[in-house]
Amino acid sequence: MPSTSRLLVLLCLISALAIAVAGCGSDDDEDSGSGPTAAADCNPGELETLEQGTLTVATDKPAFPPYFVNDDPANGKGFESAVAFAIADTLGYAKTDVKWVVESFNSSFAPGPKDFDFDVNQISITPQRKQAVDFSAPYYTAGQAVVALKDSEIATATSLDEIADAKIGVQLGTTSLDAVNETIEPSEEPSVFNNSTDVVTALKQGQVDAVVVDVPTAFFLTAVQVPEATTVGQFEAPGGDEWGALLEKDSPLTSCVSQAIEELRSSGKLGQIEQRWIQQATNAPALD
Length: 288
Description:
The chain is α/β, with parallel strands linked by helices. It has helices at about 5-25, 25-30, 80-90, 105-110, 125-130, 175-185, 195-205, 215-225, 255-265, 270-275, and strands at about 55-60, 100, 120, 135-140, 145-150, 170, 190-195, 210-215, 230-235, 240-250.
């Protein structure tokens, strides 16, 4: 009979072989997958949402056009309202299963737990914000625009150099502020305002010579909010200004929301929504 030590060695070899065999599988087994990007995990009944069977979507209030219409995100009108409902539909949620809540712009990307499944609020994807929250694949890429009153000297500017000496207004916490500092490089510090309403007021009252906002906002601002203003021109923001759905850090929903957006993009649905609700034709020249 083999010695006790030899038996122990033999048993260890048999055990190791059994583990190795169990760990082997066909390519089909691996492809079936159970990871976060597997299609089965993105079914409504399997998604880890804030409320079972409901998709909770957040945005700011007031919610302005062209992103929302009549300050009512739930009506499905406006670019981001339509995008949110399209994401929900792709994930298998009916319109009645989508619940809207209010979340201010600046607090949305603050660290900590969230009272929503995802937020759509023209939130640019930046490395700094990604340290505190998750972002989906981008659903829109926006450039920056300079807006001034029509009777302003800035209104006839044809280059960024002509704007550098102007008093520029911009909203706190936006990538427009980065675009002003890094691309325009103004001779004096820009005037920073807490929200978009204050930016518009400053332009109307002549507190600033011009304001910098994203291109879609510039179109709405000049068409509705300040018709006496004009879009002087547009320029590319550093690295591009991509908007994504914002989710809690390490959210189990992130990959599914991204997957839904990519499906909407490849099907052409996302492009149709953009064409329907965001007017790109501002006739604003490029500013170099």
